[in-house]
């Protein structure tokens, strides 16, 4: 095989990869969830139809919904997160991470819900709606999913990583990467 044949094959593979990437991007799955309540206990959480955790999309949406309760009752929120985390409950490091990220910053979680913005101090519309989506890199291996959500206070999507437990066919939250700082709400911004 000559030099030009090798370049031709590489170019063909590049075009094939570009086509595959375009097809994968075009087939991105997106799910929007609507909630009329913020659960205040594990029992209330389990009463929601999404609590079967049959898809990673449901688990991600419920994770953010549950975190809306953090300012109201930290312990109840941790108990609900334990349900969403399945066999690996919230550990001391994760509890401290939540304290660091959410104390006085409940607006970070609200920013993922429809209608919120820095201008309205991240007050979402009711009923609460949140959209979760995947991308071509969301499923690095069988039984794992990293899904995305948009914050109205950030320029790039944020992620939650989930893992499938085959014995129950449920998706559990493994890592929440959606609690990074965002734009300050107008009410808290001395420069607004």
Tell me what the structure shows.
The chain is an alpha+beta fold. It has one domain (30-188). It is built from six helices and five strands. The chain has helices spanning 3-26, 42-46, 56-67, 74-85, 92-102, 107-110; strands at residues 30-35, 128-133, 144-149, 158-165, 170-177. The chain has a three-stranded antiparallel beta sheet with strand order 3-4-5. The chain has a two-stranded antiparallel ribbon with strand order 1-2. Strand 3 (144-149) and strand 4 form a beta hairpin. Helix 3 packs antiparallel against helix 4 (74-85). The protein is globular, with a radius of gyration of 20 Å. The N and C termini lie far apart (65 Å). Residues 13-20 have low confidence and may be disordered.
